[in-house]
Amino acid sequence: MENERKIKVLIAKPGLDGHDRGAKVLAFGLRDQGMEVIYTGRRQSAVQIVKAAIQEDVDVVGLSCLSGAHLTFFPKVVELLKEEKAGDILVIGGGIIPEEHIPILKEKGVTEIFVSGAMVKDIADFIRKNVRKAV
Questions:
Q1: pLDDT in tens, the chain (135 residues)
Q2: What is the reported pTM?
Q3: Cα–chain-centroid distance for residue 45?
Q4: DSSP one-letter code for 14
Q5: At 128, phi and psi to the nearest 5?
Q6: DSSP type of residue 8
Q7: Can you tell me the distance from the alpha carbon of 95 to that of 20, in angstroms, rounded to the nearest whole number?
Q8: Structural contact between residues 89 and 58, judged by C-beta atoms closer than 8 angstroms
């Protein structure tokens, strides 16, 4: 299946959060799982993340947040993707997310939340199962 297109994932750190070890571990792990991964770096705005996702024609946006701003940034990315007619891009999130915030984020369009301790293989399996069917 050499001609099959790899699933393309954008990993992003929205806001002023300066910690990115988990995002980098996930980026390398998803690459090891056979996906093409782009890491935007720290301190990205929702607009910058959406712009990069569209420019790179990704299938998935993975957002990582440890600062507590996930209720602001994650839904904003989903909203902007819809405004740019890219609402079919799968959005997943992770970081330090209180359990009671997970249903709120899902209600606002984040497909899944992976908290600390999640296994990269489980995240990759979830992506493969839920990414848009065109891949």
A1: 556 789 999 999 988 877 888 889 999 999 999 999 999 988 899 999 999 999 999 999 999 988 888 999 999 999 999 999 999 999 999 988 999 999 999 999 999 999 988 999 999 999 999 997 544
A2: 0.91
A3: 14
A4: B
A5: -55, -40
A6: E
A7: 10
A8: yes
Closest by CA to 124, choosing from 9, 46, 39, is 9
In the chain, how many H helices and how many E strands?
5, 5
Burial class (CB in 10 A: 0-12, 13-18, 19+), 68: middle
Q: What is the Cα–Cα distance from 61 to 38, expressed in whole angstroms?
A: 10
Instruction: Write out the DSSP string of 37-88.
Output: EEE--SSB-HHHHHHHHHHTT-SEEEEEE-SS-HHHHHHHHHHHHHHTT-TT
Place of tokens 């993707």: 81
